[in-house]
C-alpha cells in the first residue's frame, strides 16, 4: 500500500536525484544497471528498483510511485497495474513508443540555449542524439527547457505549415510535441 508520503506533492531533494537517475536509465543507459527494456521501452518495476538499489541508491516502490506521480516534467508512465514503467519521451536509445501521428497546433515552441541560435538559423533544429526534436505548446514551457541549457532562447515554429508540407508530428503522453527535424524555413521568430 502506498504510504502517506504520496500525500505531499513536492519531491524531496533525494527523490529528485532518484528521478534523474531513473530518467538516465530508462531514456539513455539501461545497461548501466544491467536492465533490459522491451522494444517499446517498458521495464519491470521491481527489477528496476532492485537494480537501482544495487547501485547504492535509496529507492522503494513508494519512492518510485512518488517520482512518477509528482515529477514536474511527467517523464514516466506506469502500465495499468503498475508492474511496468517507461519514460514517455526523450530517449537516445532505440525504442518504439508507438506514437500515433497527430495534427499539431498552428504554433509550437522550442526551448534551447542562446548559444545554439546561430547553428539553428543555418541548419534547423536537429534531434541530435535523441529520437525526436521536442517542441512545446507554450513559450513558458519552452523557456523552462531552454534554461536547463544556459541562457534561454525560445524559437517560435510554424507547425501548421510543417504539417501541411507533410512533416509528421507525434504527441507524447506528457504533452511534448515530437518531430524528426525542423527546417529553419519554419522558424517564425526567436525570443531571447
From TrEMBL:
<keyword id="KW-0808">Transferase</keyword>
<keyword id="KW-0520">NAD</keyword>
<dbReference type="InterPro" id="IPR042081">
    <property type="entry name" value="RNA_2'-PTrans_C"/>
</dbReference>
<dbReference type="InterPro" id="IPR022928">
    <property type="entry name" value="RNA_2'-PTrans_KptA"/>
</dbReference>
<comment type="similarity">
    <text>Belongs to the KptA/TPT1 family.</text>
</comment>
<dbReference type="Pfam" id="PF01885">
    <property type="entry name" value="PTS_2-RNA"/>
</dbReference>
<dbReference type="InterPro" id="IPR002745">
    <property type="entry name" value="Ptrans_KptA/Tpt1"/>
</dbReference>
<dbReference type="InterPro" id="IPR042080">
    <property type="entry name" value="RNA_2'-PTrans_N"/>
</dbReference>
<protein>
    <recommendedName>
        <fullName>Probable RNA 2'-phosphotransferase</fullName>
        <ecNumber>2.7.1.-</ecNumber>
    </recommendedName>
</protein>
<comment type="function">
    <text>Removes the 2'-phosphate from RNA via an intermediate in which the phosphate is ADP-ribosylated by NAD followed by a presumed transesterification to release the RNA and generate ADP-ribose 1''-2''-cyclic phosphate (APPR&gt;P). May function as an ADP-ribosylase.</text>
</comment>
